């Protein structure tokens, strides 16, 4: 079946893809969310959450290395049988489409509050959806090319954020460490996890990576995850040393505020620039979600169901229509919370169950 | 085809015009002045709007307009002010928020929080106190041949650049920025024959102006004690009937808590200043022993001044050095049992300033 063929990607491309998918709006909002939960120990929560993501990566890698020649959506029916397998793929398809929708909605919401106060939200959403839909209909290798060219922007972003340290951080804000005990930190791990979602791209990408060995593939994944951890921990550390805890609780996007510290002669409002070019980092994650969503739907039938491009545009269209129903910010936030639960279920629980079943079947087969 | 369609759509949609700003409609507010109306609790907010006149002929003449509107909140006043003048007020360029003393003595930060809502507002604007009639100052067209806003913000900017005064960026204070210990010091302007001059800092306790101040010399020393980096600040002192001037090349401050099992006994503030000696009375050869003597006398003199500064701060109950936060961060168990705002005024605080003369400039 032609639609199910895929070009191979290199290890370096995998690294960029995973890292860029993990980066999302959470860079902006994580310090705010964590301020309420883990307080000034947020960096610790974020770090530990990254380690949890690492465990999730091992899980998917393990599962993938049992079926090295096929992607997850293709081998799921083999593990759990055809009807259940189709159902799992359907769940993945919906989950990724909703993830893409929520990400774009959240970003539009940020833009609408910060920058384009008068522009109707649906215009912004539509533009991002069109761009994402176009990118998502490409092949994995082409998507990787796009991600590679956006990589520099994420580097600029972190340099801009780190540069704020020139304006006098207060290390006292981080001390004493663990003043409230481990409880808030452990609770914060869950909330920080949404930042690391995206490594699940490996579910699909595993068989298409030209890595020397599967151990090397795991190494690349680990390296990408570590880079994401570094990114998040750094931005949390900067936010909590530059702002008081109360300010962090008040300000939903502390990073935008922090960029207002910059006072340059030639350039005004770096925060505005940051918000605008952040569209690349957000859309990069969003189109990979739509890409995965379409792939999951294509694999509803073992010999392929419909064309990838058609599924992409169908899901993008549906997601856009869905986006019109979100008017209030609180609705978006509540729905995002639900989606976070969904993430943990879809990228940790489901692969774990699949691994167990596949292990049991394998053991059974060996005995027989 | 598909690519072309996507590109066309993008071009059509990117030219959206909802959020465009017309430059000629913008009234750039340079200074916002806030005080109470008379004895009431109604806000009186003044806006110094800068514009370039005759800009079409090149160069242009900077000029400013002052408008003032009362209101129950900052936002209410902005709305009234907006309808009182054609165009729309924008705080994109606001560089200074100047507050009156009566307003400062109440709860200034509570009102200022709404500044965070101004989307386009670069929050690097500074916050300062004016001890005089705000309307009178801000309605002046020019001070010392500069527009009022250039004059006031210019003084702050250059003094800040030299490291002589605290930074006082608005963003540090609003939205609960001072929630740990809401004690701070804001730069204070006082009326002068021509306009206004900087006269040190106003001390705040619990977010309210205490009415006590430090003068300009004390301000520099307290900045150094609080950890302002050295920027060749000059310190001039007179003793033995002679003037001595040093320029700070390097400074290091440190806080130290001394405690026993009964609790906190005292806190030490140490400040090490490495300096260049600029003038030291009539010219003598600076032998090692001469320099040592100057170092010792200068250190003693500055330590005495530091004691006086701390006494003023304790009297005002203003923990400008954030010793409470220091204690909470490094000795949390010690801090937990204390009521800081009660303990602080009675606390023994020992400053120790040590001057080291690195060189004597280009002359020996």
TrEMBL record, chain A:
<keyword id="KW-0309">Germination</keyword>
<dbReference type="InterPro" id="IPR004761">
    <property type="entry name" value="Spore_GerAB"/>
</dbReference>
<feature type="transmembrane region" description="Helical">
    <location>
        <begin position="218"/>
        <end position="243"/>
    </location>
</feature>
<feature type="transmembrane region" description="Helical">
    <location>
        <begin position="341"/>
        <end position="360"/>
    </location>
</feature>
<protein>
    <submittedName>
        <fullName>Spore germination protein (Amino acid permease)</fullName>
    </submittedName>
</protein>
<feature type="transmembrane region" description="Helical">
    <location>
        <begin position="310"/>
        <end position="326"/>
    </location>
</feature>
<keyword id="KW-0472">Membrane</keyword>
<dbReference type="GO" id="GO:0009847">
    <property type="term" value="P:spore germination"/>
</dbReference>
<feature type="transmembrane region" description="Helical">
    <location>
        <begin position="12"/>
        <end position="30"/>
    </location>
</feature>
<dbReference type="GO" id="GO:0016020">
    <property type="term" value="C:membrane"/>
</dbReference>
<dbReference type="Pfam" id="PF03845">
    <property type="entry name" value="Spore_permease"/>
</dbReference>
<feature type="transmembrane region" description="Helical">
    <location>
        <begin position="188"/>
        <end position="206"/>
    </location>
</feature>
<feature type="transmembrane region" description="Helical">
    <location>
        <begin position="42"/>
        <end position="63"/>
    </location>
</feature>
<keyword id="KW-0812">Transmembrane</keyword>
<comment type="similarity">
    <text>Belongs to the amino acid-polyamine-organocation (APC) superfamily. Spore germination protein (SGP) (TC 2.A.3.9) family.</text>
</comment>
<keyword id="KW-0813">Transport</keyword>
<feature type="transmembrane region" description="Helical">
    <location>
        <begin position="150"/>
        <end position="168"/>
    </location>
</feature>
<feature type="transmembrane region" description="Helical">
    <location>
        <begin position="272"/>
        <end position="298"/>
    </location>
</feature>
<keyword id="KW-1133">Transmembrane helix</keyword>
<feature type="transmembrane region" description="Helical">
    <location>
        <begin position="84"/>
        <end position="105"/>
    </location>
</feature>
<feature type="transmembrane region" description="Helical">
    <location>
        <begin position="117"/>
        <end position="138"/>
    </location>
</feature>
TrEMBL record, chain B:
<keyword id="KW-0472">Membrane</keyword>
<feature type="domain" description="Spore germination GerAC-like C-terminal">
    <location>
        <begin position="200"/>
        <end position="361"/>
    </location>
</feature>
<dbReference type="GO" id="GO:0009847">
    <property type="term" value="P:spore germination"/>
</dbReference>
<dbReference type="InterPro" id="IPR008844">
    <property type="entry name" value="Spore_GerAC-like"/>
</dbReference>
<keyword id="KW-0309">Germination</keyword>
<comment type="similarity">
    <text>Belongs to the GerABKC lipoprotein family.</text>
</comment>
<dbReference type="Pfam" id="PF05504">
    <property type="entry name" value="Spore_GerAC"/>
</dbReference>
<feature type="domain" description="Spore germination protein N-terminal">
    <location>
        <begin position="19"/>
        <end position="174"/>
    </location>
</feature>
<dbReference type="GO" id="GO:0016020">
    <property type="term" value="C:membrane"/>
</dbReference>
<dbReference type="InterPro" id="IPR038501">
    <property type="entry name" value="Spore_GerAC_C_sf"/>
</dbReference>
<dbReference type="InterPro" id="IPR057336">
    <property type="entry name" value="GerAC_N"/>
</dbReference>
<dbReference type="Pfam" id="PF25198">
    <property type="entry name" value="Spore_GerAC_N"/>
</dbReference>
<keyword id="KW-0449">Lipoprotein</keyword>
<dbReference type="InterPro" id="IPR046953">
    <property type="entry name" value="Spore_GerAC-like_C"/>
</dbReference>
<keyword id="KW-0732">Signal</keyword>
<keyword id="KW-0564">Palmitate</keyword>
<protein>
    <submittedName>
        <fullName>Ger(X)C family germination protein</fullName>
    </submittedName>
</protein>
């Amino acid at each position: 079946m032609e639609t199910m063929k895929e070009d191979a990607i290199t290890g370096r491309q995998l690294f960029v893809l995973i890292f860029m998918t993990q980066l999302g709006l959470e860079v902006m909002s994580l310090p705010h969310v964590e301020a309420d939960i883990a307080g000034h120990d947020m960096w610790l929560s974020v770090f530990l959450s990254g380690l949890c993501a690492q465990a999730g990566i091992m899980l998917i890698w393990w599962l993938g290395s049992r079926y090295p020649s096929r992607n997850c959506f293709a081998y799921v029916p083999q593990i759990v049988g055809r009807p259940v397998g189709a159902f799992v793929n359907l769940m993945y398809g919906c989950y990724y489409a909703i993830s893409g929708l929520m990400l774009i909605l959240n970003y539009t919401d940020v833009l609408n509050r910060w920058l384009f106060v008068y522009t109707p939200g649906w215009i912004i959403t539509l533009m991002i959806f069109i761009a994402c839909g176009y990118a998502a209909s490409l092949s994995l290798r082409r998507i990787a090319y796009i991600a590679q060219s956006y990589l520099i922007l994420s580097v600029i972003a972190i340099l801009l954020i780190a540069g704020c340290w020139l304006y006098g951080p207060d290390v006292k804000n981080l001390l004493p460490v663990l003043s409230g005990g481990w409880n808030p930190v452990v609770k914060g791990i869950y909330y920080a996890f949404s930042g690391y979602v995206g490594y699940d791209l490996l579910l699909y990408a595993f068989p298409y990576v030209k890595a020397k060995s599967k151990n090397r593939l795991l190494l690349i994944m680990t390296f990408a995850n570590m880079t994401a951890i570094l990114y998040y921990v750094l931005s949390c550390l900067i936010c909590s040393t530059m702002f008081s805890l109360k300010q962090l609780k008040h300000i939903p996007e502390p990073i935008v505020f922090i960029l207002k510290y910059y006072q340059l002669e030639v350039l005004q409002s770096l925060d505005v620039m940051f918000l605008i070019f952040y569209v690349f980092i957000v859309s990069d994650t969003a189109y990979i979600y739509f890409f995965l969503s379409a792939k999951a739907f294509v694999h509803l039938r073992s010999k392929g169901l419909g064309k990838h491009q058609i599924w992409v545009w169908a899901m993008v269209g549906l997601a856009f229509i869905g986006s019109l129903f979100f008017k209030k910010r609180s609705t978006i936030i509540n729905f995002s919370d639900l989606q976070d639960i969904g993430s943990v279920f879809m990228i940790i629980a489901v692969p774990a169950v699949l691994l167990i079943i596949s292990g049991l079947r394998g053991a059974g087969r060996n005995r027989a | 085809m598909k690519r072309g369609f996507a590109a066309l759509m993008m071009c059509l949609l990117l030219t959206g015009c909802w959020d465009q700003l017309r430059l000629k409609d913008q009234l750039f507010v340079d200074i916002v002045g806030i005080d109470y109306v008379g004895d009431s609790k109604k806000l009186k907010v003044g806006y110094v709007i800068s514009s370039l006149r005759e800009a079409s002929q090149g160069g242009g003449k900077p000029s400013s307009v002052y408008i003032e509107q009362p209101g129950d909140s900052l936002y209410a006043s902005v709305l009234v002010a907006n309808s009182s003048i054609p165009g729309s007020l924008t705080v994109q360029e606001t560089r200074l928020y100047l507050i009156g003393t009566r307003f400062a003595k109440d709860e200034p930060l509570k009102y200022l929080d709404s500044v965070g809502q101004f989307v386009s507002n670069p929050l690097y604007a500074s916050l300062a106190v004016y001890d005089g009639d705000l309307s009178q100052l801000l309605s002046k067209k020019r001070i010392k041949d500069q527009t009022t806003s250039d004059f006031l913000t210019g003084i702050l900017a250059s003094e800040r650049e030299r490291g002589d005064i605290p930074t006082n960026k608005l963003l540090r204070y609003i939205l609960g920025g001072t929630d740990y210990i809401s004690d701070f010091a804001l730069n204070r302007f006082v009326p002068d024959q021509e306009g206004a001059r900087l006269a040190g800092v106003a001390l705040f306790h619990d977010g309210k102006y205490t009415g006590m101040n430090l003068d300009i010399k004390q301000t520099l020393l307290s900045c150094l004690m609080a950890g302002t980096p050295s920027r060749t600040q000059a310190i001039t002192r007179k003793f033995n009937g002679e003037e001595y001037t040093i320029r700070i090349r390097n400074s290091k401050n440190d806080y130290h808590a001394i405690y026993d099992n009964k609790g906190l006994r005292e806190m030490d503030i140490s400040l090490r200043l490495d300096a260049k000696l600029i003038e030291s009375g009539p010219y003598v050869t600076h032998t090692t022993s001469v320099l040592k003597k100057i170092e010792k006398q200068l250190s003693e003199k500055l330590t005495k001044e530091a004691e006086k500064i701390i006494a003023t701060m304790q009297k005002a109950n203003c923990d400008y050095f954030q010793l409470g936060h220091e204690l909470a961060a490094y000795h949390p168990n010690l801090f937990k049992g204390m009521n800081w705002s009660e303990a602080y005024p009675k606390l023994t605080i020992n400053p120790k300033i040590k001057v080291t003369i690195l060189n004597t400039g280009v002359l020996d």
